[in-house]
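dumping the sequnces here before i forget
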Amino acid sequence: MKAAIFEEVGKPLVISDITLGDMGPHEVRVRTAAVGLCHSDLHYIDGTVAQPMPVVLGHEVAGVVEAVGAHVTRMKPGDHVVGCLSVFCGTCEHCIGGNLVNCSNQSVRYLPGQAQRITREGVHVNQGFNLGAFAEEMLVHENALVKVRDDMPLDRAALIGCGVLTGTGSVIRTAKVPPGSTVAVIGCGGVGLSAVMGARLAGALRIIAIDILDSKLELAREFGATDVINGRDGDSVQKVIEMTRGGVNYAFECIGAKRTAEQAFEMLATGGTVTLMGVMPPEMMIEFSGRDLFYRQKKILGCFMGSNQFPTDIPRLCDFYMDGRLPLDQMISKRIRLDQINEGFEDLKAGNVARSVVTFDI
Ligand SMILES: NC(=O)c1ccc[n+]([C@@H]2O[C@H](COP(=O)([O-])OP(=O)(O)OC[C@H]3O[C@@H](n4cnc5c(N)ncnc54)[C@H](O)[C@@H]3O)[C@@H](O)[C@H]2O)c1
Ligand SMILES: [Zn+2]
Ligand SMILES: [Zn+2]
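..and the predicted 3d for all of it:
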């Protein structure tokens, strides 16, 4: 069975044959139908964030269940499923409290390097994100999957597993944006465009999209942005403050850069909230005005995977798509084969795509 393996920072992924281990009682074997190329995969490939290697990356995924372990009752062979990297145990303090993304039960959510499910010629290969979706098949814990409706196209379902869940969740679950709010989204890739969609769903009155590529800003308008700013055309903080007469109620940083995180905070109105979603290198520090925190009551939120409750959120997002309220067709810029994955990442790096999706013949 073929997989794309990340072996060395800065080097192309290598297509190799891998073998999956025996299925445990709570595990599910899935034939991969489609997997999106997310910037979080790219952060590992370009070395921004460390990861034990060799590893099968890939986490924005949908597929079809092939076989289920003896104790799995929520899924059966033939079911269509979406994967999510925030696998949860369901019994810890965080899970019981409804904060599934904070689950840290290491018997379910293995630390990087711990999952023993993949080998290549008898030698251990790491399972990135507890999924390892850049492969024709995956062996995962049942709580890393959710069943979705059969009429949901699997390539668009895949996008929901990370970018769409994170972007819409950041608005709806993390920041809890109320109707009528003003919103700014900095960075309009798969995650930022999804934050724009989330703001639209939440009933935001004004949605200002900011990117350095006009092509992304055009897409942002299609996804619901009411105003756009090219960050290369001068000071976007000043522009947002002028456009809104004082700043936005909510800002979302969807890149992972120090300066854009600071800009997101600076463009807030008094009482505003910034939500940070971009993945940053571990040593990166961000600077905010302490005075703005107390005197203007600005708030800073971190957001992991849209603070999701994915077993309910993902099927609902599929319903929103099927109902015509999530324009995911425009999110897929390219469909590629597994052996074109390195070109796919070059496209992501260059900003040529909203999302490329690897599709498999199944
Ligand atoms: N918090 C989470 O749980 C979570 C989940 C998924 C992805 N992420 C992270 O979110 C970030 C975005 O992911 P993505 O897949 O959408 O990436 P992407 O590469 O598709 O999009 C990034 C966008 O930012 C724009 N950009 C870059 N520099 C800019 C600047 N200085 N000003 C304005 N725009 C700029 C690019 O043109 C691009 O459109 C990444 O850091 C990714 O790792 C976080
Ligand atoms: Zn992702
Ligand atoms: Zn838990």
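The longest strand covers residues 27-36.
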